[in-house]
Amino acid sequence: MTRAHARPGPPAAPSPAAAAAAVPDPRAWRMLAVALSATFMASFDLFVVNIAAAALRTDLRMSDAALELVVAGYGFAYAAGLVTGGRLGDRYGYRRMFVTGLSAFTVTSLLCGLAQSPAQLIAARLAQGLAAAVMVPQVLSLVTTHFPAAHRGRATAWYGAVNGIGAVTGQLLGGLLLEADVLGLGWRTVFLVNVPVGLIAAGFALLVLPPPARDRTDRRFDPLGAVGVTLTLALVLAPLSLGRQEGWPVWTWVCPAAAIPAGRLTLRWQRTLRERGGDPVVHPGLLGNRPFTTVLLAIGLFQSYFGAYLFTLALLLQGGLGARPVTAAVVFVPQAVLFSTASLLSGRLTARYGTAVPATGAALIITGLTALAAHLVVAGHDVTGPALMPALALIGLGNGLLLPPLIGFALARVDPPEAGSASGTLSTTQQFASSLGVTVFGMLFFATAGPDLRSAGTGMVTVTAVFVTLIATVASLLRAVARHRAG
């Protein structure tokens, strides 16, 4: 059972004997390095298609609806399968499911790169999202089961860093790949680059990742719960993904309303199954853990901002300012470097200073967003991408100090038997919130940016005001967690 009172923050100093016993096996860090390849690939492919959208439209003669499915279908399938993917790891072993998911991701990436029609690409992207949902939850599960609680902060700092780096690199490397037009392959390279990486990572995974300590196939899988979770998410994500393009027909309003009873029935079944001694997909104890759910809400708010921020910034640079993909990529470099550096330092800093580190990150993000909006207002139509780089650098630094500690706080009091459920729930929250943010704040951006993004600066200023509110709320939730710890 998950501990009822999570207390994120710096741990009490252990005795020398306890500290020695708590040091993770050196092999655990090699395991983490291999596992994080999956985190990077899944995050990279979520965002790289934004850069390739124009090329896809031209080369495959894609309609707006088909392009929407290529972009959103991956995220939809990814989010819908994450909880189930985490529980499959609990039952069949994290190494087995990681390698299975990574191999499937490599194959589906190849199919994306070879697609000759919109229908083929859409089908391959849906399959790619499902493959990502199998491999990614195993990463945090491995962290939870192979790193002592005192060292999870450093491990989750790497996870948060790689997750964010993958998102930023999707914009950065995507632009460079399109500009290079390797072997005349154009947009296909953004998918085909996964093939050699996936093959190498799968080979190392078989060598480095540990087998399960015991046979867990006797644990019964919960197919009804898996279907219920997937259906509940689908009822929300499908309308959000397709509603704007379809003109918001009646079904896009009926489905989210139906998600409420579907979610309640699923949760009721999970509790009933647990009371009967079964093994539910989502452990009800996680939802009764107030600190865990508080941090989970903070992560959801952050991811809704983060996904929408990267999406609207790419639109501002390429659509509003007319920057070439390679120029837009260069603008991303400072914030990518600072994000990476801050993320990797955040584990050690949080171990020493606790919630002050993510609070500082939130303050830097708000400062950077405010500077970005102010520059757009003052410069008007004379704004240029390079002139935005100082503000973007502050935002990148803040993101790196905020995201990894949030993930570490969420997992700080999760016991190994619930690792798969907690990891799947956390990853689902991240992906769902990111998709929600891109859809909702993307619509706000388009509504205020005007036809052909002629007023993209105005659109960015508008969504930036919302982003500031979201980050301020995250900071408030962190203060609540700190007060709970002090109490």
Give helix % range.
over 70%
Total DSSP E strands: 0
Mean pLDDT: 79
N-to-C order of helices and strands: HHHHHHHHHHHHHHHHHH
Computed structural class: mainly alpha
What proportion strand?
under 5%
Number of helices: 18
What does this protein structure show overall?
The chain has 487 residues and is mostly helical. Helix content is 80%, strand content 0%. The chain is built from 18 helices and no strands. The chain has helices at 16-22, 26-59, 64-92, 94-114, 118-135, 137-146, 152-180, 189-192, 194-208, 223-246, 251-275, 284-287, 290-320, 325-353, 356-379, 389-411, 419-449, 456-486. Helix 4 (94-114) runs antiparallel to helix 6 (137-146), helix 13 (290-320) packs antiparallel against helix 16 and helix 13 packs parallel to helix 17 (419-449). The radius of gyration is 22 Å and the shape is globular. It starts with 15 loop residues before the first helix and ends with a helix.
